[in-house]
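Response to reviewer comment R2.3. The reviewers asked that we include at least one raw input/output pair. We reproduce the pair for Gfo/Idh/MocA-like oxidoreductase N-terminal domain-containing protein here without editing.
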Amino acid sequence: MSENATTAAPLRLGLIGLGSMGRHHARVIRATEGVDLVAVADPGGDRFGVAGDLEVLPDVHALIDAGLDAAMVAVPTVFHEEVALALAEAGVPTMVEKPIAHSVEAGERVRDAFASRGLVGAVGYVERCNPALRALRERLDAGELGQVYQVLTRRQGPFPARISDVGVVKDLATHDVDLTAWVAGSPYVSISAQVAHRSGRENEDMVVASGRLASGVIVSHVVNWLTPFKERVTIVTGEKGAFVADTLTGDLTFYANGTVTSDWDQVANFRGVTEGDVIRYAIPKREPLALEQERFRDAVRGVGSEHVTMAEGVNTLRVVEAVLTSAAEGRTVQL
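Raw output as returned:
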């Protein structure tokens, strides 16, 4: 953070949505230097008791009336557009939890509302702040893997009680779409997917998707809410080996293609490439949500630009909707 960001008066930040994500945002905002949580709102009340000595306001308009420098939106996805447009109209820089909105068209309206007013608009893709993925991106940018061939993600676990309005694709797979395009530095050009409904709910709870990026990298995503253990893994394979990022633990491991050849023909034929050194990197581990809030603060201050933009949020949502279209229509969708 620059000296300007530390010496300026703290940003007056408002939070709307005090549910499962909002309560964590409230905690992190209060701990973020240069930011004061001055107002909170949730028409459903404060079931987690995070408001402290702040009045729980009924809606976004009451939040705006508190006089804000910036806002954090953590309401259910179906309300993102309505709340974000009100904040844009009031001239309030805003970060919206992922996904940016319930549809691409709604996301475009939100993006355009902030862009037309010259306001900072961010989307809360917190995985970009995960220490393992940040270290992975830096090492890929430095060419440590050589040419990248494939990105594979697995995001599995038990059903989360917090979700009521979207399926696993818009809630969880959206993370994998965003981080894959970001880590590989290339947009999607095609996607094919299958979904399943196994828990008796209206929305899908399992998805398997595969696709291709503009760079030629092939990608694969396995995401569900029905696995009795939690897994958050990103594997990037390239000409020099493979990186494995575990975003649950923040660990990054490199498996090198070895230079040692085997004269045991059966093993050599089976392995294809030889197994080389395995390196697990020691990397500093900060809470991703804390870094995300700092990046948003710096963007609002005009001293940083590492936030996920609303334009990026719309691009990710476009791929996510293509996943659902592919599954519904049984075809590969070109982007």
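The first strand starts at residue 11 and ends at 16. Residues 310-329 form the longest helix (20 residues). Further pairs are available on request from the corresponding author.
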